[in-house]
Amino acid sequence: MKKGFYTLFISLIALLSAAQDQQFTQFYAVPCALNPAFAGAGLQSRFATQYRNQWSGIPKAFTSYVATFDTYSNELKSGFGLVFQRDIAGAGGLSRSQFGFQYAYETRLKKNLYIRPAIQFSMGTRSVNFNNLTFYDQLIRNNAPISLETYPGQSVVYFDAGAGGLIYGPEFWAGFSAMHLNTPDESLYESQVSYLPVRYAFHGGKRFRIKGYSLKKLDHHVLVAANYLSQGK
After folding, report:
1. How is 133-192 classified by DSSP, letter by letter?
2. Closest CA to 151 of 176, 133, 126
């Protein structure tokens, strides 16, 4: 009976839950995942990946992946990027995958000051394997291998859109991004909705020059960076 209560409790919580994006402490390790305006911002083509295994002591807890590739075209004064993100959680393999294309245009405001407006278009999927879950009717039937429950759709596909901007010079940079502008519905139930809330990010950094006192009189620099994220409640 106690197991059945826990199953019912978790089911009710799921009806009230709200989704949220991946969160990484090292937010500048994969800058294109943070802001599409970073696409092509490097001097060369760039490939970056990031992996997180949260609560590894719990079997099949939360696992996140992200991989990006970006490059810059001098002729078009534009940056192009590709972003792949995936989350997997729980025994049922509740997952969200998203593949996006980024475009950023770079223009010079004045000497050593540039601005980069950008957009991102993505296709996303959310899915779960109900066959790997245990339902209340299985518990009261002596752990029956098959549930009598009727399942909703096991996957959904949605379109996603985002935008961002970046302004930078030799000693500083500042940017913002707003992802999921169309708040896509990723609910697996046709009778319910589960909108992915807009994610806002504000970030920037400053490079401080420290005069060198070594034999070669080399200068050193200290980089300070910060990021603020807000998404839903």
Report:
1. S--HHHHHTTS-SS--PPP--SEEEEEEEEEEEEEE-SSEEEEEEEE-TT--B--S-TTS
2. 133
**Nearest of 125, 77, 121, 90 to residue 10 by alpha carbon:** 90
Note the pLDDT tens digit of each residue in 72-103. 999 999 999 999 999 888 766 788 999 999 99
> Are 118 and 112 a contacting pair, CB within 8 Å?
no
Above 60 in pLDDT, residue 4? no
Our measurement of the distance from residue 77's CA atom to the centroid of its chain's CA atoms, rounded to an integer in Å, reads 26
Copy the structure tokens of residue 146: 């098959």
CA-to-CA separations, 63 to 35, 49, 67, 97, 109, in angstroms, rounded: 22, 14, 14, 12, 42
Report the alpha-carbon distance of residue 176 to residue 34 in Å, rounded: 9
pTM: 0.81
Helix ranges (H only) for the chain are 2-16, 31-34, 136-140
| Separation between Cα atoms, residue 71 and residue 80, nearest integer Å | 6
Q: Are 200 and 21 in contact (CB under 8 A)?
A: no
- Alpha-carbon gap, residue 79 to 164, rounded angstroms: 13
